[in-house]
Specification:
This protein is mainly α. The chain has helices at about 5-15, 20-45. The two termini are about 35 Å apart. The model has no long low-confidence stretch (mean pLDDT about 70).
Length: about 70
């Protein structure tokens, strides 16, 4: 079994690898990439109303509440 004594040693043996920021960027690009064709199709069919204003917003702030529900 390998023992890594420091992050520098691990980087030398395994390479830098992707960071958390890289995963977030790829995930957000995937979400936009999947929804963009659907939005374009809906806009072409006239299902999207341009200039529609949002009138209200409900914001729920749970201080110390569930983390990922």
């Amino acid at each position: 079994m390998f023992e890594f004594r420091s992050p520098r040693d691990r980087a030398l043996l395994c390479g830098p690898g992707p960071s958390r920021r890289d995963f977030l960027q790829v995930g957000s690009l995937a979400a936009v990439g999947l929804s963009l064709p659907q939005y374009a199709r809906a806009a072409a069919e006239g299902k999207v109303r341009p200039g529609c204003e949002d009138r209200s917003c409900i914001m729920i702030f749970n201080l110390g509440g569930p983390s990922h529900i």
